[in-house]
């Protein structure tokens, strides 16, 4: 995923502002084409309340934590090529954060409940199942990262404590002592961790206070601190590890030299989350429903993209061949009114009397998405048409007229085919 045509951005929507397509059983996953600078479309994925997803290193899969029933949780695996769900990995609790190792063989999910010790589930990404759990890696906010060599798992801790990083040796499953990097207690946003691709450093960001440091991945000693202002909220590395992008809550975003955290440039965007790729294309979530595409080579060229719902996060992964289904065809007019017509409402097989509509002769009848048909007898009163048992009554059709109301039907005797 090195060229601009070799990836798409994927945005998972958390469903807190359901769109008209929302059915309560699926959530939205949007695809953004960085070359065309536009929204490709939005797929619906089975599940509810998705969290922040991660992509497999080869870009072929997306891992999305979500709720699958009232008290059931899973990590949903989506193939980027087709946008199909290929697996569901059952989890004991909601996953607060995910991290995948560089070779893609293992996925880690922080599953500690609120106020819990931060249990982490280690998942085999071939078998798509949990192979072990490790307690105490992080806190309930659950920020995780895996070292470039896959030997260490890091947990970020901040709730009711100093800003800390805790290492775990994966070979033994041994959790080490937490190392403080700030000296400042209280931090409700958690500590985000971002290892460099070459394994030489670990970046730690506390989005609430904007503290950003570079750590030695072995000793966790602070090797550099950022002091450039702007209150950093999120960080992303270019795929080659040469540039660290910082999106800030105040003013412009910053481009930093990863080892020294010295500023080398700026870009015109602020917000809460950012995703970046090696060609310098950035996708910044500026507000919960608007992302901005920027290119480092020409950051003044902004392309704003409106997303259908409040978005949890955006990641870069392999491009998809999926395209949304075409919109429905414009309604046809299969019939026209012969005269004015009564409006009937349908309930449990009965047609209830409604109001009279002055539909003039020859006025087209909109396409009827629903037809009520069967043997009916005219009973008069509030239920003029009553279903009959065959062979009694007349065989009737009643056509729905969506332009009149949500529940309006017209007798076939009042219309004629065109």
UniProtKB/TrEMBL annotation:
Q: Does the keyword DNA-binding apply?
A: yes
Superkingdom is Bacteria
Keyword DNA-binding on this protein?
Answer: yes
Sorted UniProt keywords: DNA-binding
Q: Which GO terms describe its molecular function?
A: DNA binding
> Which PANTHER family did the record assign?
DIHYDRO-HEME D1 DEHYDROGENASE, PROTEIN NIRF
Name of the protein in its database record: DNA-binding beta-propeller fold protein YncE
Species this protein is from:
Kitasatospora paracochleata
